[in-house]
Amino acid sequence: MNPYSHFKTRVVEIGDLPMGGNYPVRVQSMTNTDTLDTKSTAEQSIRMIEAGCEYVRIAVPGLKEAENLRNIKRELHKRGYKTPLIADVHFNPKLAEIAATIVEKVRINPGNYVDKRSGASDFLPSGRTRISESRYEEELEKIASRIEPLVKICKTHGTVLRIGANHGSLSERIINRYGNTAEGMVESALEFTKILEGLGFYNTVLAMKASNVRIMILANQLLVERMKKEGMDYPVHLGVTEAGEGEDGRIKSAIGIGSLLAQGIGNTIRVSITEDPEFEIPVAYNILQATGVRITKTEFISCPSCARTLFNIQETLQTIKQRTSHLIGLKIAVMGCIVNGPGEMADAHYGYVGAGKGKVMLYKGQELVKKNIDESSAVEELISLIKENGNWKD
Predict the structure, then answer these.
(1) CA–CA distance from 349 to each of 313, 316, 321 (Å)?
(2) pLDDT, position 125
(3) Dist. CA 165–CA 136, nearest whole Å
């Protein structure tokens, strides 16, 4: 896949915040409070929203939780927050039907929606008989009949459905035919999608999630390849599920989500780390910034320095960051020397490059504009250069 071409999808309207098409990659997270506790869930949602969360997902394990979504939404609206809500539903189709009348989007898992896995192993026992074609089709018809009431409700209320295929919860039917594989994940989601299309429903988002980063990446690549072959263009939700906490969770998420974004795949992301959900949001925006798909801050390029660096680059970088970090969209390079600096900062808007002991050169793009400036005044000269070119704002 061409890493510079974005997979162009249809637009789905999720409340007042559309996804897909030319819209920015959206950031979402999920509450971990008791959904029956309206106050705690609303307050955690507000912390997420104020951190930058654009869609708030809420778990719906039972009937009472599904019905309480109305109170949570009412409380958020009362406090002035209209962020779209997503209900996360697994087992009971009735819960999805209730939720779809209240929230803007409902997530269902094909593996849990109708049939359940009947064994603990991810691999078929030796000699296991393949499910017959007639039995397979019969199960699909059963899915269609059970999901049709939900589809009718979603059409009436303008509710979006996310079909979330998880590596750890594929149905027995899918495992029998494809094994517990990335191919099985894709087939699980697309057979559901085709059922929805058969019911005249196209307001759908697809997700391939796994805790194994390589499987997550492969499944999403296969999904987009299949969609292209079959003329589909549904938005894609990205996430490494159960990524962990701290640095481990952040690195796994950055690799999985970031590599796909760099390939042009993904319309919304969720960073799943074992911390309070509001801490997921800065990680998500950092991934979007690093892959260049959504610029939300100033970007700084800097070298690790070496014996050729004749100024305190760490201290200088921090000073420049403090002075310019509000210039969203600018890329500023702080490089140790002129040997590699100018070439390695090729796409920076401005460059601060060491030229010798106590001396600095300033660049605008690839153009050297100020030579041999005294280090003591170089930061102010850089700011003056930015102002002269109309890129400064207070």
Answers:
(1) 19, 18, 15
(2) 44
(3) 18
Q: What CATH number belongs to 11-291?
A: 3.20.20.20
Ranges of residues in the chain whose predicted pLDDT is under 70: 1-5, 111-131
The CATH code for residues 299-388 is 3.30.413.10
pLDDT (0 to 100) of residue 123: 41
* CA 75 – CA 81 distance, rounded (Å): 9
Interatomic CA distance for residues 5 and 205, integer angstroms: 20
Closest by Cα among 101, 115, 103 to 191: 115
Q: Is-contact 268 255, C-beta < 8 A?
A: no
* Inter-CA distances, 160 with 4, 42, 135, 151, Å: 29, 22, 30, 10
Non-local CB neighbours of 149 within 8 Å, separated by 6+ positions = 93, 97
pLDDT for res 6: 85
DSSP-based three-state secondary structure for 143: helix
- How does DSSP assign 183-224, residue by residue? HHHHHHHHHHHHHHHHTT---EEEEEEBSSHHHHHHHHHHHH
Going by C-alpha positions, the residue among 256, 278, 84, 249 that lies closest to residue 162 is: 84
Give the pLDDT confidence score for residue 144 in this predicted structure: 87
CA 182/CA 222 separation, integer angstroms:
8
Tokens of 320: 């420049």
Q: Which amino acid is residue 304, in one-letter code?
A: P
Spatial CA neighbour of 235 closest among 3, 4, 6, 1: 6
H or E stretch at 85: strand 85-88
Q: What is the pLDDT of residue 131?
A: 67
Identify the pLDDT of residue 255: 97
**pLDDT score recorded for residue 114:** 54
